[in-house]
Design goal:
This protein is of the alpha+beta class and 344 residues long. The protein has three domains: 177 residues, HUPs (Rossmann fold, 3-Layer(aba) Sandwich); 55 residues, no CATH class; 77 residues, Translation factors (Elongation Factor Tu (Ef-tu), domain 3, Beta Barrel), CATH 2.40.30.10. It is built from seven helices and 18 strands. It has a six-stranded antiparallel beta barrel. Strand 8 and strand 9 form a beta hairpin. The relative contact order is 0.12.
Length: 344
């Protein structure tokens, strides 16, 4: 057993991470499972821990529980709240992936003497770069742009070449674990049970009527409170006498106003980034890439120019709709993930 490589698997209680342990055991790894407590919902934790323990007992490996709720509060939840307060649209999964799933988890693996860390993410890696998964409909590369590049050599993604329906079939074929194949998919943001407004309303007065203005600054209507809007939204506010649909173009948190404009005015080509993270050393400050400005958007070609302060300027070849401050702009070379940054 001493020659077997040890791998720590992050187990959420879902089918993906659970079946990842099976695949790793079949490859000959010594598997250790861990569930990380992050969000504040104790009943969910208890249910997910029980599922993880059932999987561990069936396959015969050790299952740990790691409480990281305080760190999650500081590094994921609080920034999420603060970014919405600033009139931007946060991407909390990218914070969590850097600081917890591929940060605190690495530290815990070190304490156990594990050589590798594995998760149920649908993504590929060669130890130097991430690549899009075979099942592109489940690909999660966009959310991993901000992971520290020095840890890539320690990561394993057993589902890299799998499709989700086949993973469910694998679980369904094991009577003791068949429940994994039929349970509901986990929420995209683990601490948002219904709507993000429900979370924000615990900290701020979100129902605060304000003015809707046009691009010239003229008041043309009213809205329910600026935190309830994101760039590109076209409903939830009232305007008088509009001859065409109007969309949120800008959010002004200091004055509780939103700027609206026709759809063709919501497109833009150029924008700036902060906190850029790259998985390669560019030969020069400028490089071309395929750029994705939201998870569900297509990749679009453009030019990235790095600055000396950890930021960058992006100019797309063609305008993109509803580019939102706070979201991630992620760079690719075909299927290879090059890095990315947060839209200013």
């Amino acid at each position: 057993m001493g020659d077997r490589k040890k791998v720590l698997v992050a187990m959420s209680g879902g089918v993906d991470s659970s079946m990842s342990t099976k695949l790793l055991l079949e490859r000959g790894y010594e598997v250790h499972g861990v569930y990380m407590k992050m969000h504040p919902f104790e009943e969910k934790h208890a249910a997910n821990i029980e599922k993880g323990r059932k999987v561990a007992a069936y396959f015969g490996f050790t299952h740990h529980v790691l409480d990281k709720r305080d760190e999650f509060l500081r590094k994921v939840y609080t920034p999420f709240i603060d970014i919405y307060k600033a009139g931007k649209t946060p991407n909390p999964c990218t914070f969590c992936n850097r600081h917890l799933k591929f940060g605190a988890l690495i530290e815990f693996a070190d304490g156990l003497g594990c050589d590798y860390v594995a998760t149920g993410h649908y993504i590929k890696t060669d130890g130097q770069f991430f690549y899009e998964a075979t099942d592109i409909s489940k690909d999660q590369s966009y959310f991993l742009f901000n992971v520290r590049k020095e840890i890539l050599k320690r990561l394993i993604f057993p589902l890299a070449d799998w499709h989700k329906p086949d993973i469910k079939k694998t679980a369904a074929a094991i009577p003791e674990l068949a429940f994994l194949a039929t349970q509901r998919e986990s929420a995209e943001i683990c601490f948002v049970e219904t709507d993000y407004i429900d979370i924000i309303s615990k900290h701020f007065e979100v129902e605060r009527e304000g003015e809707v203005i046009d691009e010239s600054g003229k008041t043309i209507g009213a809205h329910r409170g600026y935190m309830q809007y994101t760039i590109g939204k076209r409903r939830g506010f009232t305007v008088g006498g509009a001859k065409e649909p109007l969309y949120v173009q800008k959010i002004l948190p200091e004055s509780n106003k939103i700027v609206v404009a026709p759809k063709d005015r919501i497109y833009q080509k150029a924008f700036e980034l902060e906190q850029t993270n790259l998985f390669f050393e560019p030969a020069q400050r400028e490089f071309r890439a395929l750029i994705k400005v939201r998870y569900r958007n297509d990749k679009k070609p453009g030019l990235v120019t790095l600055d000396e302060n950890g930021g960058a300027k992006v100019v797309l070849d063609e305008p993109e709709f509803a580019i939102a401050s706070g979201q991630a702009a992620v760079f690719y070379e075909e299927t290879k993930l090059l890095g990315g940054g947060y839209i200013v």
